[in-house]
């Protein structure tokens, strides 16, 4: 046996792929678990109100969610995944040390899980999206300081979008709600003899909703795959969307509205005593069943917390279920609270008109599921794709190609969580959510979907929950004295958590990255051939070595069989 002693930068030299496999293996686990937790909890953002209003059954909601989340993730989801992997840190600085980039992505996933778990325990409505972005920034700052972050357009655009997305969603929501309100809802309320006219106008309104939903989705999909074929893309998008809208007006609305009418869905109440009775029953039910609801939600939450040590996968859902969804359902004060403060009640439109929006609420829920799949899939697949491609090419590639297997893998995780635990969460939310009529639900959900899809096409990770908050507030502000009907105390708590999440997640991952980097120094690399002599033949597992020194320079001693040396 021969012994060679040399001095080497522990993060230089010819990297050996075998030593990186544990990072990829852990990322596979964390990505799947994170997807499962999002499916168990976050999907309720899309379908909770529809299930609560009995527009959809639990089974129907799960089937539709499976279809449309998959559609969104597999068509548009790769852009957000690429942003998480390559659009936050200055990846070019990791050209000589790709192994550190992979390690940082792994610690980012783990630290995200730890922070969201802590936030869950503290009842803070944090966003997994914000946590992922902050964690990824953390290891870039540790490794290269301020130059390690892509401040503009990377992080700058993301932060701007976090402020703008709830505001834009609120504007969209106001537009959808006020259009229906002043077009026909209010006129029918003032003169019930115009009901037949109002029903015809509602058909036209829904045709516009369907047209806009299909048009925007098809434009985003077609231009994502071929930006140069402008004429063909617009022709397909406008043609398909227009055909569906015309079919709806021509007669498609009759069997659909008839189906919902047979189920007895009614969106509003005219009788004041009935409203009061419903409010009291709702409050009593929530009060008496709170303990039961906690137990119902404990299964996915406990599973999430138990997996937090492995990564962010399972814990994000626990936070979203217990905090974020409660924010969406509680951001507007209930009718009982309004009555107690002698505020004017929320608008109640003609029951038959409201019931016609049941299908629209289902459409908006499905559209929001597409947006959820397109954007939130990046939370679980972004780090996985970054680690995989770094290992596959032994470098941090500048223009990563979409890894559809990773998108499909994480989508399977979402769907698995949905079917295993999502039904219980949806049922709990459907029972406890503040009364939201179909037109309000349609306005808020459709606005959320538009905002999130726009962000997804651009490749910006945004919080679906925060957009939902903006949509609900937007519709609520359209009511008389609407600004007094917003739960501003809760809104301040939400805003504080938004501001706090980024630096906390950043600091936590910075600490974890330093610890993990120090613990692996000098353990992954074959010494350069210039140091060893002529190199060692396939000898990563065939020699022994020990290294001592600080984090920058180590003295390593190798012992290996002399026959492994390549002769000159």
Automatic annotation (TrEMBL):
GO cellular component terms given for this protein: membrane
GO process annotations (BP): phosphate ion transmembrane transport
Major subcellular site: membrane
Membrane topology classification: Multi-pass membrane protein
Transmembrane segments: 20-40, 61-80, 100-120, 132-152, 158-183, 203-223, 229-252, 404-426, 446-478, 490-515
InterPro entries documented for this protein: Phos_transporter (IPR001204)
Location of the protein in the cell: Membrane
Protein's job: Sodium-phosphate symporter.
Protein's name in the database: Phosphate transporter
């Amino acid at each position: 046996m021969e012994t060679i002693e040399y001095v080497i930068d522990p993060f230089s030299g010819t990297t050996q792929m075998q030593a990186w496999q544990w990072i990829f293996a852990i990322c596979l686990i964390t990505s799947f678990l994170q997807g499962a937790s999002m499916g168990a909890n976050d999907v309720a953002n899309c379908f909770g109100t529809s299930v609560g209003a009995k527009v959809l059954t639990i089974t129907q909601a799960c089937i539709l969610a499976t279809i449309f989340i998959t559609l969104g993730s597999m068509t548009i989801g790769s852009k957000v995944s690429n942003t998480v992997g390559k659009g936050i840190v200055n990846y070019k600085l990791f050209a000589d040390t790709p192994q550190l980039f992979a390690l940082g992505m792994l610690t980012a996933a783990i630290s995200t899980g730890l922070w969201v778990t802590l936030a869950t325990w503290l009842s803070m409505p944090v966003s997994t999206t914000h946590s992922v972005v902050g964690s990824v920034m953390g290891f870039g700052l540790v490794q290269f300081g301020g130059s390690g972050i892509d401040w503009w357009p990377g992080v700058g655009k993301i932060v701007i979008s976090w402020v703008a997305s709830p505001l834009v969603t609120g504007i969209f929501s106001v537009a959808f709600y006020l259009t229906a309100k002043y077009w026909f809802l209010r006129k029918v309320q003032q003169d019930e003899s115009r009901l037949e006219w109002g029903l015809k106008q509602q058909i036209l309104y829904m045709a516009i909703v369907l047209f806009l939903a299909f048009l925007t989705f098809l434009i985003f999909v077609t231009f994502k795959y071929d930006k140069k074929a402008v004429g063909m893309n617009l022709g397909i998008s406008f043609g398909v969307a227009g055909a569906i809208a015309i079919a709806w007006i021509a007669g498609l609305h009759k069997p659909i509205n008839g189906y919902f009418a047979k189920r007895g869905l009614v969106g509003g109440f005219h009788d004041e005593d009935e409203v009061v009775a419903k409010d009291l029953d709702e409050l009593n039910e929530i009060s008496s069943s709170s303990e039961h609801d906690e137990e119902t939600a404990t299964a996915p939450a406990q599973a999430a917390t138990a997996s937090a040590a492995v990564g962010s996968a399972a814990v994000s859902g626990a936070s979203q279920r217990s905090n974020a969804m409660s924010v969406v359902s509680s951001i507007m004060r209930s009718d009982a609270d309004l009555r107690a403060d002698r505020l004017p009640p929320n608008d109640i439109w003609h029951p038959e008109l409201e019931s016609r929006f049941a299908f629209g609420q289902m459409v908006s829920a499905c559209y929001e599921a597409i947006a959820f799949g397109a954007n939130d899939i990046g939370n679980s697949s972004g780090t996985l794709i970054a680690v995989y491609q770094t290992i596959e090419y032994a470098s941090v590639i500048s223009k990563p190609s979409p890894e559809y297997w990773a998108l499909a893998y994480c989508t399977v995780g979402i769907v698995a969580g949905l079917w295993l635990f999502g039904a219980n969460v949806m049922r709990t939310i459907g029972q406890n959510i503040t009364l939201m009529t179909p037109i309000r639900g349609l306005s808020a959900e459709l606005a959320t979907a538009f905002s999130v899809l726009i962000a997804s096409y651009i490749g910006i990770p945004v919080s679906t929950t925060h957009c939902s908050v903006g949509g609900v507030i937007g519709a609520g502000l359209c009511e008389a004295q609407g600004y007094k009907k917003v739960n501003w105390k809760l809104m301040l708590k939400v805003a504080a958590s938004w501001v706090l999440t980024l630096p906390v997640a950043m600091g936590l991952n910075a600490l974890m990255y330093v610890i993990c980097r120090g613990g692996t120094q000098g353990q992954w690399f074959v010494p350069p051939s210039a140091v060893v002599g002529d190199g060692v033949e396939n000898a990563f597992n065939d020699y022994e070595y020990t290294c001592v020194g600080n984090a920058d320079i180590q003295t390593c001693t190798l012992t290996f069989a002399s026959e492994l040396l390549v002769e000159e």
